[in-house]
Amino acid sequence: MTTMLDSGANLRDVQIAARHADPRTTMRYDRARKNLDRQPKHILAAYLASAT
Predict the structure, then answer these.
(1) N or C: which end of the chain has fewer CB within 10 A?
(2) CA distance to 13, 22, 30, 46, 47, per residue, from 43 (Å)
(3) Consecutive sets of 10 residues in the chain, 52 residues long: mean pLDDT of each?
(4) Structural domain boundaries of the chain?
């Protein structure tokens, strides 16, 4: 699901694809994805991936 969100799919489409009855469930994945972006190891991985 986070891959779909990263690729630009809207939250409603992801909710339907994941068969989440409540959009708040899908929103948790979106918030979790943003939390990961702030972790140092993910910042380093993103930096290293962009250097190739």
Answers:
(1) C
(2) 28, 31, 17, 5, 6
(3) 78 89 83 65 77 68
(4) 2-50
